[in-house]
Amino acid sequence: MQVRVDYLQIDPKYPLHQPEAINVTDNTAPIKQEIDPEDRLTRAKSLAPLRQMLAFLWPHKSRLMAAGAALIFTAGAQLTLGYGVRILIDEGFSGADATGLYKAVSFILIIGVAMAFGSMTRFYLVSWLGERVSADLRSAVFNNLVHLQPSYFETNHSGEIMSRLTTDTTLLQTLIGSSVSLAVRNALTLTGALTLMVITNLQLSLVILIAVPITLIPILVFGRRVRKLSNKSQQSIAEVGSHAGEIFQSIKVVQSFNREIAEKTGFAQDVERAFVIARSRVWQRALLTGFAIFLLMGGMISMMWSGGIDVIEGRMTGGELGAFVFYAVMVGTAFATLAEVWGDLQRAAGAAERLMELLQESSTIPDIGSNTVTSGQRLHFNAVKFFYPSRPDMPALNGLNLTIQPGESVALVGPSGAGKSTVFELILRFYDPASGTIEFGGKDLRALSLTAWRQKIALVPQQPALFSGDIFYNIAYGADNPTQASVENAAQMAHAHDFIAALPEGYRSDLGAQGVRLSGGQRQRLALARAILVNPELLLLDEATSALDTESEWHVQQALTEIMRERTTIIIAHRLSTVMNADKIVVMDEGQVVDSGRHEDLITRCDLYQRLANRQFESGAEGGVTGHAS
């Protein structure tokens, strides 16, 4: 059966460094640096990040081309309205009968119907593309993130990552489904209207052509400011979400210490900070739009004055002036829209940049091994040395040598900081050693397929991770196509079936977020049932009973006795009474093995083991250990 690795909390919250070879790695080698928010604000002032969105648009090129055709058709239809205005004034209003008026109105009606059909088609297609690309991008980012090493999520706030997956993709959806369409349509309208203006009256066109370049000045000046503030605004919103998520996850601690008022004050400050940044961004966008419209209106007023003089003096007809004014209004409207859309493009470029950073992240634990993983082999640590990146001068493991035979139960004991949890992290390949090797069946773990290796392992952590959903889903999480009977059998072996059956909906009972509706002992037994169901060859127990009451600990211990039979088991425990019956107890200190053997031998010869036992006896926690020794 395939095995799914359960959750493990890693204590040192720093990024992991990538090894450079299979046999030798260097945990002090530099890795790609995280981008500081302030640095991000000063980089890349162009729309270059948006070009990377083409990779998500191209698979839907048929719809993209159809949307483009509908957009061009609609823009062309809109431009022909100028001709309708011309014949309406020259023939409809000035004719001796209603023939000219009928002709002009009929023409405008036909164009109106064409514009309605084209706009409907364009709106549907571009909106579909926006939703599709947004969904594809979310999936691509998630699919990449789920393979990153756990340390990445400890150095990057989950709230910020969620903000990028939701808020930033929504910005891009709006951009593709609306803003880009507006920009292209108005660019076409602008080009067409300027061309028809030149054809209609060159002299008046020069007035508009002078005003257009002047309008670009506020777009360039304020556009850059909008981009910087948009990036900063998105960052502040992510921090707000991260803050709120952290408080809600620890709401019991917050309320037990009466910190509601302090947290409300702190959250209000974060929200206000985000508002101030957003207000600055909105002000810059308002200035951009206002200046662009003001300059264009100045040009249009000049044009209308000059054109009016030409009509009065007979150099052009009223219909020609009407058509020219219509085109000029289209130019002004197009420029005003482009000025506003430019702000959207700047903001979306910041969102695309943030999402591309997530998409381009790669795991520092390479899965390049190709050797097969055979069963029934020994696990061997050969002179393993490891440093956490935060402490490059302090080895967490210092030349560790340890051999675990197949089917053997091995307990790791020692003071805090001895390196016990680090052993688990290296076995699971959440980290790779700086020097030395970890071998399974004589093969370096880095030479094995990472997926195949982890399928052999099940972890039962001290704080089990349960997911939103029902009990069946949580027990069956690591198994392939489990049946109701197999899930119930695993629950019975984990001494969990009785309390599950007592719940109103049994195995379909919803657990709430992170299993909040269950006690600590019940959550631990569900984690054991999950491990039992996947039938692992190597079982890792990370202080699975240290936080439980006496009755819960008894149930868990009974379950452990059954699951540990005939499989390799490694146990981390501070309560020595829980590991006295292990085949081998390994005493660790300062990243090294101090001694190993059975409890009866260690209690007489190992000073550190005796000291640990005596301290527990003095605290009244482990009287059975010292009593046995005496």
Topology, pairings included?
Blueprint: H1 37-42, H2 48-51, H3 54-57, H4 61-92, H5 99-145, H6 150-155, H7 158-200, H8 202-249, H9 251-256, H10 260-312, H11 318-360, E1 379-387, E2 395-404, E3 409-413, H12 420-427, E4 435-440, E5 443-444, H13 450-454, E6 457-460, H14 471-475, H15 484-493, H16 497-501, H17 520-534, E7 538-542, H18 550-563, E8 568-572, E9 584-589, E10 592-597, H19 599-605, H20 607-618, H21 623-629
Parallel strand pairs: 3-8, 3-9, 6-7, 7-8
Antiparallel strand pairs: 1-2, 1-4, 4-5, 9-10
Helix pairs in contact: 4-5, 4-7, 4-11, 5-7, 5-11, 7-8, 7-11, 8-10, 8-11, 10-11, 15-17, 17-18, 19-20, 20-21
Short description:
The chain is of the alpha/beta class.
